[in-house]
Amino acid sequence: MLKAVLFDMDGVIVDTEPLHRKAYYSMFDDFNIEVSEELFQTFTGKSTQHVCETLIDKFGLKNQPQELINVKRKFFKHLFDNDPNFDLIPGVLDLIKNLYQNNITLILASSASMNTINWVFEKFELTPYFTDKISGASLKESKPHPEIFEIAAKLAKAQKSECIVIEDSTSGLKAAHAAEIYAVAYRSKNSRNQDYSLAKTVISDFSEIDAKKLNGLIAKH
């Protein structure tokens, strides 16, 4: 029986990927580094801390990770507040409300910083629906390590077999698989070159799932 749904945020609840992309490339310009599209795609689903540490190592930068993080965060917040196209992903609020009304515990398990998570939750008034929010940036390990989903299942007071993860990135799906939790992949238009082979179910629209359908999926598993 389904007891908890563990949501990723970027690319699942909100479409922050274009904002992050613009903010990252503005930060790259500030530090005079050229990041290929191939390298940038490997950052999907990774925490900003992890990305900045990777950049410092790869490009031999003398800066501390927090310096890069602060510059990227400044660009991101400006876009977050001012980009007219920034909104919830279509259908996700209806799904969240449906799960909440069916007494399913909702946990946010995102690689985003807690600052970004709180900005999103305040802007779109999501706090009443979720019992907990976890930022991968505050954990020892980033996705694809399973730590974030293992913690989320414990916070939900549910067995891992009673949980479902909703993810859009390769690293997130690998984390769910490593945690041995049923994963639904959302095929986001901005999640390019992601591998959904570890997902048990793949959707392209949130109208494809609700509490009843997710319960059915986990019952068959």
From TrEMBL:
InterPro entries: HAD-like_sf (IPR036412), HAD-SF_hydro_IA (IPR006439), HAD_2 (IPR041492), HAD_sf (IPR023214), PGP-like_dom2 (IPR023198). The keyword Coiled coil does not apply. Its EC number is 5.4.2.6. It is an enzyme of class 5 (isomerase). One of its GO terms (molecular function) is beta-phosphoglucomutase activity. Keywords: Isomerase. The keyword Lyase does not apply. NCBIfam families: HAD-SF-IA-v3. This is Beta-phosphoglucomutase. It comes from Candidatus Ornithobacterium hominis.
